[in-house]
Automatic annotation (TrEMBL):
The chain crosses the membrane at residues 29-54. This is Band 7 domain-containing protein. InterPro entries: Band-7_stomatin-like, Band_7, Band_7/SPFH_dom_sf, Band_7/stomatin-like_CS, Stomatin_HflK_fam. Gene3D superfamilies: 6.10.250.2090, Band 7 domain. Pfam families: Band_7. It comes from Brassicogethes aeneus (Rape pollen beetle). One of its GO terms (cellular component) is plasma membrane. Coiled coil: none annotated. Belongs to the band 7/mec-2 family. SUPFAM superfamilies: Band 7/SPFH domain (SSF117892). Keywords: Membrane, Transmembrane, Transmembrane helix. It is found in: Membrane. Residues 49-208 form the Band domain.
Length: 290
């Protein structure tokens, strides 16, 4: 056979014949011949049952008397099957998503959490999806549930709450390795929700509230400290220049005048008050000297 293929210039088909020799049993040959005779006898009505069509996103895996036919999956388009001899299974190659039911697991730091997820997968090898596993969809679902529980058991509660992307990536990698012999490609895994016990939620809420209150007190204390420093610097500037105090008075009057129904008290200039206060002081000193 190899010499004949080389003579015809078909060397690339030699490995195919080495792997699957063209051998046919007597019963299979007789059944195939009977099917062909039945097809010829019932034409043209039998053509409606012999020609099948698969869509662009589908593939057909054909079995002849229980044996997988050579050539791989058929499609897309039209293909031919022998009546009463051939059977076929359609496989959808589109991406399929399913929800992983909420799984209750014990974390590494002994906290019970309930986590659910969503998994996206597609069929990469139609032959393995039909031959290697009974129900690839159900098997992938069960495997996703157990994988999620196993991964949660290796993480702390803080990691589960803060780093969901790492958990999703680890789950996707584990599922992809396990489903590869089935011809299933896991494309993406997303963690949907993480549920905590009620008591733990209350404890975490109290801890977060106490942390926020402590942070607020620290910020308020820092603000008071900065305000006191600013007031001290302002008082030093005003004490160095008496005219600065007068400008402060005028600014205060301008602010008060912007309000309605308010009583305005005009303070006397400090220079006049200092003059009178200085005169009284001299008069008192003179009385004391007398």
């Amino acid at each position: 056979m190899e010499d004949l293929l080389k003579e015809w210039g078909l060397e690339k088909f030699i490995p195919v014949f080495k792997e699957k020799p063209l051998t046919m049993g007597v019963i299979e040959f007789v059944a195939a011949c009977g099917s062909v005779l039945l097809l010829i006898a019932t034409m043209p009505f039998s053509l409606f049952f012999c020609f099948k069509v698969v869509q662009e996103y589908e593939r057909a895996v054909i079995f002849r008397l229980g044996r997988l036919r050579s050539g791989g999956a058929r499609g897309p388009g039209i293909f031919f099957v022998l009546p009463c001899v051939d059977s076929y299974c359609k496989v959808d190659l589109r991406t399929v998503s399913f929800d992983v039911p909420p799984q209750e697991a014990l974390t590494k730091d002994s906290v019970t959490v309930t986590v659910d997820a969503v998994v996206y997968y597609r069929i990469q090898d139609p032959l393995n999806a039909i031959v290697q596993v009974t129900n690839y969809s159900n098997s992938t679902r069960l495997l996703a549930m157990t994988t999620l529980r196993n991964i949660l058991g290796t993480r702390n509660l803080s990691e589960i709450l803060s780093d969901r992307e790492a958990i999703s990536h680890a789950m996707q990698t584990s599922l992809d390795i396990a489903t590869d012999p089935w011809g299933v490609k896991v494309e993406r895994v997303e963690i949907k929700d993480v549920s905590l016990p009620t008591q733990l939620q209350r404890a975490m809420a109290a801890e977060a509230e106490a942390s926020r209150e402590a942070r607020a007190k620290v910020i308020a204390a820092e603000g008071e400290m900065k305000a006191s420093r600013a007031l001290k610097e302002a008082s030093d500037v005003i004490s160095e220049s008496p005219s600065a105090l007068q400008l402060r008075y005028l600014q205060t009057l301008s602010t008060i005048s912007a309000e309605k129904n308010s009583t305005i008290i005009f303070p006397l200039p400090i220079d006049i008050l200092s003059y009178f206060m200085g005169g009284r002081t001299e008069h008192r000193q003179n009385n004391v000297m007398i």
